[in-house]
Amino acid sequence: MTALYGTMSEFRPPAPISPKRRPFPLRMLLGMPHCYISNLIDKSYEMKMGHIWAFGRNIFMPNQPDLVRRILVSEADHFPKSDMLSNILKLLLGNGLFVANGEEWERQRRMIDPAFAHAKLQRVFPLMWTAASAMHDRLESVADGEVVAVDEEMTHVTADVIFRTLFSIPIEQKGARLLFDAFTRFQESAFVLGFLGSTKLPCPLFRKRRNAKRAAQDIHQLIEPMIRERYERHRRGEKLTENDILTSLITAVDPKTQSVFSFEELIDQTAFLFLAGHETSASALSWALYLIAMQPDIQERMHAEAVSVMDEREAEFADVRKLSFTRDVFRETLRLYPPVGFLPREATRHETMRDKSIKPGDILVVSPWLIQRHRVLWKKPEIFDPDRFAREDSRESVNCAYLPFSLGPRICMGAAFATQEAMLLLAGLVRRFRFEPVAGHVPKPVGRLTIRSENGIRLKMWRR
Ligand code: HEM
Q1: For 420, what's the count of Cα atoms within 13 Å in the CB-facing half-sphere?
Q2: Which residue lies with its CA nearest to atom 31 of ligand 1?
């Protein structure tokens, strides 16, 4: 693991040191399930299409932009989501929207799309700002140079935002803590299971499975009572007065088949929206705060922008689009640390890509982590440089090789929500506080379900 500190304008954030050569199969077997990004060889970052044969299965890694578009956009129907993901996520999300394919996915989308009206930007803005203000109050007492576990705090605030959007109530400290612990445990165990489960190896990891199941149960227990209570009221014929995503899901009727979500489906869909709605944002925000703590000049520019747009007053909806530098810092963070670092798809028919022959059942992993750090597709990809998004010479890279929210029909439904949330939270934080690195603490990125720091992200905080 390395963190190379360049000049003020050339900061190279931490990333695993890539092996020059492909690890031996046994090392891969032990290492890959632990963290896929540390097993990517150095050459992967310039290849047009990589290939490994991992324990009975071909895995291709297309980086070339036209191939990526073919898989995710123009021929997306022929490349459904692979079982590499569903093996991991089924324990937690059942056969919910994120893992479903084909007609089943279309049915779920028809029912979930209307519920997303509750996530409209103007509508969720006050919820986001209330959660941000609650976080400011929590942090006020430690912002005198204390070391703060920023990743836990970002999980708390983003879980709070999505809780308010889904259920119309805030999340409590205890729930936020439980969630952070449970999802950390889930990531550790589930990634191993998913990776090995998608190979043709027998997978005797009973303990891992048990741990992942327990973590999934803990997360379910946090949300299930609320869903059950409201579901029962609806079944008794009561009119639901809460005007939020949960009510929309409970009352959703598929216009094509007239079917409704069963109780189990409701749990799966809500669990997914809850997780998708906070875990990814928490990861990105934690990295963003680390990056700007390491680059004080960038932090000061963000502070100056936040003060000039919002001054001392409460944030307003119209402020968000004026925070253009904050947006670029967020975009650059998503480039370097895309929370969803790999998008596995499965071939359903024979294909030829470059000189490779692909068979049904082979896996194609489109990796935002790899593509957004690709040495041919980006200039100085390893450097943190938010201004690249405002420069003409990056336009092609941004258009062809930037996909933190995926592309095509399975693109993130919450991209605009997440962007508004991140800009508002970051601007609110830098307006009021200053962040500094902790001597000797260098976060260690690991790629499992999301890209997180294995040793956490800790920063010192000061009130301005
Ligand atoms: C920085 C934050 C976020 C990132 C980087 C992110 C990234 C992604 C990516 C890459 C996918 C597609 C995965 C694939 O193609 O295999 C996805 C799907 C999805 N995301 Fe997000 N997401 C974020 C935040 C959110 C939020 C806040 C919500 C909800 C409020 C959300 C809701 C969804 C949904 C519903 C899907 C599934 C769409 C479908 O398959 O039909 N995401 N997200």
Answers
A1: 25
A2: 414
